[in-house]
From TrEMBL:
Belongs to the insect chemoreceptor superfamily. Heteromeric odorant receptor channel (TC 1.A.69) family. Or2a subfamily. InterPro entries: 7tm6_olfct_rcpt. GO terms for molecular function: odorant binding; olfactory receptor activity. It is a multi-pass membrane protein. Odorant receptor which mediates acceptance or avoidance behavior, depending on its substrates. The odorant receptor repertoire encodes a large collection of odor stimuli that vary widely in identity, intensity, and duration. May form a complex with Orco to form odorant-sensing units, providing sensitive and prolonged odorant signaling and calcium permeability. Keywords: Membrane, Olfaction, Receptor, Sensory transduction, Transducer, Transmembrane, Transmembrane helix. This is Odorant receptor.
């Protein structure tokens, strides 16, 4: 990660956004563009911009989208529309609320990942932090490289999914890409200007809504990824304990470090619980609807099937990321017991061995994250939902 060792922010960048990996910087750009940036201080111009944005690309857009439920021609259209669009927008709105009203809490979590406690102490830890390539695990990307490895394809796929809506322009039936009715404004062959404006409004609105949705997925993935890296570092430090003297010097610091990781995990779970409960609950239906719509439309003359396929892939990615990174947190916290046992406890004093035994018992239950105590953030949940 492109981070400095010091904890003190500069006056021109109090949040130190320049120190984070590029996917995180993209989320900050999204916050600012979409009126969700709630940092202090704020200019009057930005507050005015946010008000205009929320009126035209949040309130009006979502209100018009919701009214389309009443103009669907068939029951099949109604079901697909609700599953395909409305559920996604509900999840987006919940994520936007979290970002705006919990902005300071989010920034505090970010700052913890740059703190001195979370920085590697030697060359081996630096390797774990950046690439995480161990000799016995040569084929697995870990560390910050793993976070980028998953986030960049997600960003590309979601952008392609929205960009593919422009394929409607290649057809001659003057269909709007996302919802057919918008405040009774006429459009079509005789109203081409109206059609162009409405088309642009829908595509730009959906693109910005997509950015909001994706931004908080990137935030969660980054934070969980950084927690899993810290668990790697804690495990390495426990394995390095060889004598009672080393144990006495390092044990309290290691337990404080682990305690910070535990608190950070609990805070992340509480912060994102509502949004991801809604996402886990609706994603299966959305993916099924997308798959049905794609299979029923897929032919050489229906280019918009590509849009549905990309949308389905984006939704699968959206579900996979929190499950994958949450699974790593649980797996690595469970492996801490092995790391503790791998220390040279047999060469330590009786008191140190008793302390390590109690610690092993305490860590029988690994760190886990749940959405409203119902959906687990793990790969089993991902395969179950899908």
């Amino acid at each position: 990660m492109e981070a400095e060792k010091q904890d003190t922010p500069t006056s021109d960048d109090p949040y130190r956004w320049g120190d984070y990996i590029h996917p995180v910087r993209i989320t900050v750009w999204t916050w600012k563009i979409c009126g969700l940036y709630n940092g202090k201080p704020q200019t009057t111009r930005y507050r005015l911009y946010r008000a205009v944005f929320n009126i035209f690309l949040m309130v009006v857009y979502l209100f018009t989208l919701s009214l389309n439920v009443f103009v669907m021609q068939t029951f099949e259209q109604l079901v697909l529309y609700i599953m395909y669009i409305v559920f996604t927008e509900i999840v987006m709105a919940l994520k936007a609320i979290v970002t705006y009203y919990k902005f300071d809490q989010l920034c505090d979590l970010y700052r913890q990942t740059l703190g001195s406690d979370f920085q590697p102490l030697d060359a081996e830890e630096e390797q774990l932090h950046r690439k995480g390539v161990a000799k016995e695990e040569q084929l697995h990307r870990k560390g910050v490289a793993s976070i980028n490895h998953y986030l960049y394809p997600y960003l590309v796929t979601t952008n392609l999914a929205v960009a593919s809506s422009c394929l409607y322009l290649l057809q001659d039936d003057y269909r709007l890409p996302y919802f057919p009715w918008i405040l009774g404004i006429e459009y079509g062959p005789t109203k081409r200007l109206n059609y162009g404006l409405l088309f642009a409004y829908q595509v730009i609105g959906m693109y910005l809504h997509m950015l909001i949705n994706v931004a908080i997925d990137v935030q969660l993935s980054y934070l969980l990824g950084m927690i899993s890296i810290q668990l790697d570092l804690i495990g390495k430090r426990f394995r390095s304990l060889h004598t009672s003297e080393q144990f006495g010097v390092s044990f309290v610091g290691l337990m404080n470090h682990h305690g910070k990781v535990q608190r950070m995990t609990a805070e992340i779970e509480q912060l994102f619980s509502a949004a991801y409960f809604a996402q886990f609950g609706s994603s299966g239906l959305v993916i099924c609807a997308s798959a049905f719509k794609t299979s029923s439309m897929f032919n050489l003359y229906e280019l918009t099937a590509i849009q549905n396929l990309l949308y389905m892939l984006s939704m699968i990615f959206q579900m996979f990321l929190p499950c994958r990174f949450g699974n790593e947190v649980t797996r690595k916290s469970h492996l801490l017991r092995t790391s503790i046992y791998s220390s040279r406890w047999y060469e330590m004093g009786l008191q140190e061995r008793k302390t390590l035994r109690m610690l092993l018992q305490r860590m029988n239950k690994p760190l886990t994250l749940k959405a409203f105590y119902f959906f687990n953030y793990n790969l089993q949940a991902f395969t179950t939902v899908h």
